[in-house]
Amino acid sequence: GDRVVTVSPTFAMYRFYSRVQGAEVVEVPLEPPNYVIGDGFLEKASVAKVVFLCNPNNPTGNLIVDERLVRELLDGERLVVVDEAYYEFSEVSFAKLVEDYSNLVVLRSLSKSFSIAGLRVGYCIACPETLEILFNVKPPFTITSVSIAAALGALEDVEHMKRNVERIAYWRDRLVSEINSLDGLRCLPSKSIFACFTCRELKIANVELVERLKRRGILVKALPRKPWFEDFVRVTVAREEENLRFLEVLRGVVEELRGS
After folding, report:
1. Is residue 87 within 8 Å of residue 108, measured between CB atoms?
2. Cα–Cα distance between 166 and 182 in angstroms, integer?
3. Cα–Cα distance between 91 and 87 in angstroms, integer?
4. I want to staple 107 with a disulfide (CB 3.0 to 4.6 A). Which of 30, 83, 226, 244 is the partner?
5. How far apart are CA 113 and CA 88, in angstroms?
6. To 5 degrees, how large is the angle CA 89–CA 91–CA 94?
7. What pLDDT is attached to residue 140?
8. What is the C-alpha to C-alpha distance for residues 151 and 120, in angstroms, rounded to an integer?
9. Which residues make beta-bridge pairs with 28?
10. Which domains are delineated in the chain?
11. pLDDT tens digit string along 9-59?
């Protein structure tokens, strides 16, 4: 089958849907300690039919690619898909490049900035010729009329979305800062709606830390371990009282581990 290239770790559905279509998926590890795309990615992507990039990335939360690299990827026949689901929280976009490149598709979502994730509403930005191709292969039944009506209603109140983004970004930055202040934890810089941190220096597996938090009423996600991505945990911004409770409980667990 055709070859699809993406990074690791990243949003799992790129791999899932590519394999459903019979493609060979090549996952190129992001380079620690900052988990960005390394020098070897272009070589791996040179034989790809499609390249998927999530920017900011999920689950790391950071920006992993710049315009220079995107333009280099676009200088070929491969299709480059940039997932900007967290665009409103990063204010970094490559959408303007669709005017110059017919092989670029930018994906966006209303799930994050408008906080309507359950409605599954998104859109793409591409040149007219590419949009026509995508429309021709689009399933006839995509999202419900309820989702469409709710999305149109949400778009009528952009000021609410901006306030929502501002609130989430404030708490995201605060979570990152306070997690980094705890001895034994290191949080990656984030431009999304969550904080991703490693507990490796605490000498505890991420699943064990997550279990300790769970016993105290806090639910966060232990991310799959890889040789280049060990013992990371992801916490999503919630309401103010929930964010404060998380920080309080996390601080207590870290102090408990440091004292043992």
Report:
1. yes
2. 25
3. 5
4. 83
5. 6
6. 125
7. 84
8. 10
9. 7
10. 3-155 (3.40.640.10), 159-259 (3.90.1150.10)
11. 999 999 999 999 999 999 999 999 999 999 899 999 999 999 999 999 999
